[in-house]
TrEMBL record:
InterPro entries the UniProt entry points to: Protohaem_IX_farnesylTrfase, UbiA_prenyltransferase, UbiA_prenylTrfase_CS, UbiA_sf
Gene: cyoE
EC number: 2.5.1.141
Taxonomic source organism: Shewanella corallii
Name assigned to this protein: Protoheme IX farnesyltransferase
Cell inner membrane among keywords: yes
Length: 307
């Protein structure tokens, strides 16, 4: 008699036989901690660049805590809203909601608690402008992007990327209490970084998105067109990365570092387009994360060494 082999596969429904005990790890996972961690680095850089010398401690600490909580809440709402399609995709079927580790009601309560607490911290201990702008970013990601744009247009992540690009501006307003044009340059950098970051992954996961009818660019316009777009966006990003130098916000250390990073990203995107080797799309996706992290560390180092 043939042995039955159990293979881990995506679920077609979110039903689960497991008893629903409290699992803090599942709640932690819903906040997308690694994504939020990188966002917090960009928040911190926004805070540091906003003022000469040392950053005032109180808005820095409570700003980071409040923005982290509201970003985590936005991520948990994304898990909640996307639970059905997540359950059908190979990359996401193991998430807490489709796996039945967390119920929809508990996920909603968790997200709302985090959001309200984060908002109150920002409003009372930081300032109103940061609280409202962070709230707008939460709505932008959790509602506008996740509940509408994602299923509406292949430009979903370009438009929705604005919410994810906001953290340095939030950091800036947290310590100054006002909007400054320079913080917008950091937003523009993350905004132009998002398409190559995400589309590289979307090429690798094209079949997943096609299966659940989500119109990501590789599904609607094909892999080759998406690779061309990624390459063009890396050129656009290279220009965006020069803006802090052109306005005198950053100096030579940042100029050299960002130019090297831009050249490396363009090279990777060029390889993806023309070398046609397996695994290159994921390679570009992973590189994008190091690129953004190193770029913001370079902004920070430059600010304190040359500022
Ligand atoms: C709308 C804009 C964005 C989209 C659509 C997007 C999409 C994604 C997706 C689908 C993943 C894979 C997640 C997984 O496998 O669970 C991912 C990973 C990641 N993203 Fe983004 N992203 C966006 C913006 C950002 C921003 C603004 C940042 C940071 C500033 C960021 C940082 C990361 C990091 C660090 C990871 C790796 C997470 C891990 O290894 O668990 N992303 N992104
Ligand atoms: C308050 C504030 C700054 C909010 C921003 C919140 C936030 C965590 C944005 C992350 C962007 C992101 C990972 C998008 C992927 O969503 P997806 O649904 O396309 O990917 P998935 O399939 O992995 O869930």
């Amino acid at each position: 008699m043939a042995k039955s082999i159990q293979v881990a596969t995506p679920q077609t429904s979110n039903a689960s036989r497991q008893p629903m005990t409290f699992q803090w790890r599942a709640y932690y996972e819903m906040t997308k901690p690694k994504v939020v961690a990188l966002m917090l680095l960009t928040v911190l850089v926004g805070m540091c660049l906003a003022v000469p010398g040392s950053v005032p401690l109180r808005p820095m600490i409570f700003g980071l805590i409040g923005i982290a909580m509201m970003s985590g809440a936005a991520a948990a709402l994304n898990h909640l809203i996307d639970r059905r399609i997540d359950g059908q995709m190979a990359r996401t079927y193991n998430r807490p909601l489709p796996k039945g580790k967390v119920s929809a009601g508990h996920a909603l309560t968790f997200a709302l608690l985090l959001a309200v607490l984060g908002f109150v911290i920002l409003y009372t201990l930081v300032n109103a402008i940061t609280a409202w702008l962070t709230f707008a970013s939460l709505i932008g990601y959790a509602i506008v992007y996740t509940a509408y744009l994602k299923r509406a247009t292949p430009q979903n992540i370009v438009i929705g990327g604005l919410a994810g690009a906001m953290p340095p501006l939030l950091g800036w307003t947290a310590v100054t209490g006002e909007f400054h044009g320079h913080s917008l340059l950091l937003v523009i950098i993350i905004f132009t970084w998002t398409p190559p970051h995400f589309w590289a992954l979307a090429i690798h996961r094209k079949a997943d998105y096609a299966k659940v009818d989500v119109p990501m660019l590789p599904v609607t316009h094909g892999t080759e067109f998406t690779k061309t777009c990624i390459l063009l966006y890396t050129f656009l990003l290279a220009i965006a990365c020069l803006l802090p130098v052109l306005v005198g916000m950053s100096g030579p250390l940042y100029l050299v570092s960002s130019t090297l990073l831009s050249c490396a990203f363009i090279y990777k995107a060029w390889q993806l387009k023309y070398a046609d080797e397996p695994g290159l799309a994921m390679n570009v996706f992973k590189f994008s994360i190091y690129h953004l992290m190193l770029l913001f560390l370079a902004l920070l180092a430059d600010h304190y060494l040359w500022g």
